[in-house]
Amino acid sequence: MEVDRALASLAERQHGLVSRRQALAMGTSASGWQRRVKAGLWLPAGPPAVYRHASSSPSWQQRVMAAVLSGPPATVASHRSAAALHGIWAPDHVEATMPRRAGSRGGAAFHREELDQVDVTAVAGVPVTAVERTLVDLAAVVGDSGVERAAEAAFRLGLTTSERVARRLEELAGPGRTGVRRLRRVLGHRHRGRPAGSELEVRAIQLLWAAGLDTLVRQFEVIIGGNRYLIDLADPVRRVAIELDGFASHSDAIAFQRDRARQNALVLAGWTVLRFTWADVVHRPGQVVAAVAAALAA
């Protein structure tokens, strides 16, 4: 039937989902929809009145889309869900924002606010808060460290800039807005250097700055012998270079050779080079701090 093809087409664009409200709006009768559900063509997706096509596979994106569809029009994925959809947070929580006038919903964490159109976009077919608004909202539900990692990821991926985030933050700031001071704090101390090249670099700079080693600059550029190098973290005055070795960026022979040639060039130019891994920063932070402090004091 034509209506079934239309429903299947809509589901393809919505991670395998349709809401009962959408089905009725497309011409399905209430009894006709119930027959389709009883026949197993459409399966309950979790939230009330949201269904997934029997041929679709459950996924985290589908859970988020189900939360959006369970709300009234203008409901969008937000906070940690939005950050994950933008690729700056690990998929974990299912969160959405709906208009204040909406009633209660189950199955997800719903926030209530009237969103400006500038704060709404779509990612992979899911209505979601824009990156700048997502970072403002994220600051209300996670700590400084998480906000900084997400912000640096957004800057690194070219999704936004610190200036755009700061501007939207000030436009939204007002009485009752949670997280404003946290995001201001994160943006305020990141003026030194380019966006961090990885989450490992963010964790390292957080560790070292917290230990009082705050002369370090992210992604510092040096020119040696006509070659341009970006040092993960550097103290340009003392010529101390800190390289953070994540497996993904150093896992092939070409990258391995390039790293060694780069390190030799820095050493010959008078730099002290320290290298740390994820395990060092996360599991042996005291050793990292001590090594960097000793190099800076030498």
Question: What this model shows, in words?
Answer:
The protein is an alpha+beta fold. Helix content is 45%, strand content 19%. The chain contains 13 helices and 12 strands. It has helices at 2-13, 20-25, 30-38, 60-70, 79-85, 131-138, 144-156, 162-172, 180-188, 199-210, 253-268, 278-283, 285-297, and strands spanning 17-19, 42-44, 50-53, 76-77, 95-98, 109-112, 120-123, 126-129, 217-224, 227-235, 240-245, 272-277. The strands form 4 sheets. A 4-stranded mixed β-sheet has the order 9-10-11-12, sandwiched between helices. A hairpin with a 5-residue loop joins strand 2 and strand 3 (50-53). The radius of gyration is 24 Å and the shape is elongated.
